[in-house]
Amino acid sequence: MLRLLLLFAMTVSAASCGTTGLQHTVNTVSSEGGLPVQSRESGEEMTDPEIRSRLALAEQGDVKAQFAMARAYAQGLGVRKDSAQALRWYRLSAAQGDVFMLFHLGSQLWEGVEVPKDESEARWYWTLAAEQGFPPAQAALGTVLLTGSQDIAVDKVQAYVWLSLASAQGDEEAAQRLRTLTKQLSSAQMAKARQALTQWKPARVVSVVSAKSR
Questions:
Q1: How many C-beta atoms surround the C-beta of residue 149 within 10 A?
Q2: Which of 119, 155, 179, 181 has the lowest tally of Cβ within 10 angstroms?
Q3: 166/5 Cα distance (integer angstroms)
Q4: What CATH architecture applies to the domain 2-213?
Q5: CB of 105 within 8 A of CB of 136?
Q6: Which own/partner contact pairs does 169-176 have at CB distance under 8 Å and 24+ positions apart?
């Protein structure tokens, strides 16, 4: 389900945030030769001219380039596969507050495939995206709070809030979970959830500090 949310998020981000070139950036790492350049962080020599270009932009703070470098290190595209470097670049791209970057990093941390699994940090990044009104993050967060996990306690009141917000923006799976959850809540829980929902307002995140440095 979370993989489907991620695919949906990529579509939403491209349509609403002007990032249609993002997947092109990620997927067009060429294999052409070139003079080697050394990464400041890993000490690795890079011969791919596009990787060198992306690295230079990433080090200047370009969010798309940072995301591209994260994917390159995560998947070994033109560089040695390195989950630590992937996580570093994912965090830097998310630190600028873009909802897609926040959601994507949360999903990577939750799944633990490209970077080490960390459910608590995943929740933190999802929350930052959800608070800005991003439906996939709201749906993911609501689902996790509804079911709970090893590191995250069940919170049906908050789950109701996030699933309601995602459902209101057209997420059908969130709407289905919300209908099921509504039958499980007590009168007191429902009153608390509805009050929280009426008080909710989207946040405006300018920059983000990594959860690991809080």
A1: 14
A2: 179
A3: 11
A4: Alpha Horseshoe (1.25)
A5: no
A6: 169/133, 169/135, 169/138, 170/135, 171/135, 171/136, 171/138, 171/139, 173/1, 173/4, 173/139, 174/135, 174/138, 174/139, 174/142, 174/143
pLDDT tens digits, 159-212: 999 999 999 999 999 999 999 999 999 999 999 999 999 999 998 765 665 555
Q: pLDDT over 70 for what percent of the chain?
A: 73
Give residue limits of the domains in the chain. 2-213
pLDDT in tens, 87-146: 999 999 999 899 999 999 999 999 998 999 999 999 999 999 999 999 999 999 999 999
Residues 6-20: pLDDT tens digits?
444 443 343 333 333
3-state helix/strand/coil string of the chain: CHHHHHHHHHHHHHHHHCCCCHHHHHHCCCCCCCCCEECCCCCCEECCHHHHHHHHHHHCCCHHHHHHHHHHHHHCCCCCCCHHHHHHHHHHHHCCCCHHHHHHHHHHHHHCCCCCCCHHHHHHHHHHHHCCCCHHHHHHHHHHHHHCCCCCCCCHHHHHHHHHHHHHCCCHHHHHHHHHHHCCCCHHHHHHHHHHHHHCCCCCCCCCCCHHHC
pLDDT greater at residue 43 or residue 171? 171
Looking at the chain, the number of H-run helices and the number of E-run strands are 11, 2
